[in-house]
Amino acid sequence: xxxxxxxxxxxxxxxxxxxxxxxxxxxxxxxxxxxxxxxxxxxxxxxxxxxxxxxxxxxxxxxxxxxxxxxxxxxxxxxxxxxxxxxxxxxxxxxxxxxxxxxxxxxxxxxxxxxxxxxxxxxxxxxxxxxxxxxxxxxxxxxxxxxxxxxxxxxxxxxxxxxxxxxxxxxxxxxxxxxxxxxxxxxxxxxxxxxxxxxxxxxxxxxxxxxxxxxxxxxxxxxxxxxxxxxxxxxxxxxxxxxxxxxxxxxxxxxxxxxxxxxxxxxxxxxxxxxxxxxxxxxxxxxxxxxxxxxxxxxxxxxxxxxxxxxxxxxxxxxxxxxxxxxxxxxxxxxxxxxxxxxxxxxxxxxxxxxxxxxxxxxxxxxxxxxxxxxxxxxxxxxxxxxxxxxxxxxxxxxxxxxxxxxxxxxxxxxxxxxxxxxxxxxxxxxxxxxxxxxxxxxxxxxxxxxxxxxxxxxxxxxxxxxxxxxxxxxxxxxxxxxxxxxxxx
Length: 490
Ligand code: SAH
Ligand code: SF4
Ligand code: F3S
Hints:
Elements: E1 34-39, H1 43-58, E2 62-63, E3 72-77, H2 82-101, E4 106-110, H3 111-117, H4 120-123, E5 130-132, H5 140-148, E6 153-155, E7 178-182, E8 184-185, H6 196-200, E9 204-205, H7 208-220, E10 225-229, E11 237-239, H8 240-243, E12 260-262, H9 263-271, E13 278-282, H10 291-299, E14 306-308, H11 316-321, H12 328-342, E15 347-354, H13 361-374, E16 378-383, H14 391-395, H15 402-427, E17 431-439, E18 446-450, E19 456-460, E20 469-477, E21 481-489
Parallel strand pairs: 1-2, 1-3, 3-4, 4-5, 5-6, 7-10, 10-13, 14-15, 15-16, 19-21
Antiparallel strand pairs: 8-9, 11-12, 17-18, 17-20, 18-19, 20-21
Helix pairs in contact: 9-10, 10-12, 13-15
The structure holds S-adenosyl-L-homocysteine (SAH), iron/sulfur cluster and FE3-S4 cluster.
């Protein structure tokens, strides 16, 4: 899962004054009030910001990409590591300095850090006006109003049902080609290092019909790729009985048994929308990924051959302490199944944590040898950061000195670079189908897109355009990218 910390700018959209919506006015300008949002953390947070924007627009707010003209500033935050929270705190200090000059500006903290710290930032530290957890975004307009009236504006209620299924996200920073769709929320796994179950609550799956509808609408608007998001997509599960909803028309009810839609079924439903709509998904949990999912990926050309399968560690003892509920051998078995069913060209990536509680030098070596075995195309790599309230914080000692955590991390990164280059070299000399996502950062004369395995491919622009599929002959590579030229257009 991507944890790169990036700002989100909102595309200005003037459509908020539709009939029937409550217009929230700025008393000085006489215009609709404007909101600005920045997002931190994983793709799910970025996806949530699109829901937040939709809720606010429905309630008459306009949007802006310039916080200087915003009436309401939202930070959608991440708690996963201490550094993520520190980044948000620095940003809050900045916005509080801005607020000194513009006291009418409202600052709201959203997302995981809001959930974790609850009232603290409002009542004790007094650096925010509004606190809203990830399941309370429908309440945002009401909370803004409460804050306007000088009342306490906090809602960190975690729901067992909320999936925002009926809310059409307002696509932010969109390239018009690729989009994220949340298919579930929360996590029931309780990995001992992880704060997510506490900040996001219980796992719940979203109605498959609403997922297919959202994907179909994106396709109708010209999007060519959707990524289905969840902390553990393989445990996606929807049953009529469990969710007490009308029977899914496309699935048969067998006797008195209710049909269950699992992740493989959902993938297939989305893949069938159109063969030219690519389908990606993240994150797969090694304990839950099934052969049925792998065969479904194989069956549909438009389901991308790329699996993000975070290992976290290569040592069975450390994995047990992490409460990951699989062993090194189990993990290797799943990688072997991917290679056997989907072939060597299927991309595999990982998340790794170095210096977890009591990790020995030998156990760290086991992480390196696992990396040598799998040869990941890509990895997100971190040193362990103890999080308040987690099982590890309560039961285990964070006893690996920072410099050792960092040294082990450097070794893991070095190993990853070796395998990325090795994997990329295998792609040289081959033709890859690429979905063009936009202009390359390097030069306006080049475009970039991704192959099925999620690798970035750069090639001369010529007459080609964003959103097209092209076949590219890859001629060269670095650890991060493939370069080549178009050989066929579709
Ligand atoms: N649901 C995903 C992970 C989401 S969090 C999964 O199970 O794979 C993204 C990544 O952050 C994790 O995979 C883990 O590698 C890392 N991470 C989570 N908690 C951490 C911590 N306390 N210290 C360091 N890295 C952590
Ligand atoms: Fe955190 Fe584990 Fe859930 Fe991933 S599966 S979000 S690491 S508790
Ligand atoms: Fe995502 Fe960070 Fe929350 S990784 S789920 S935003 S703690």
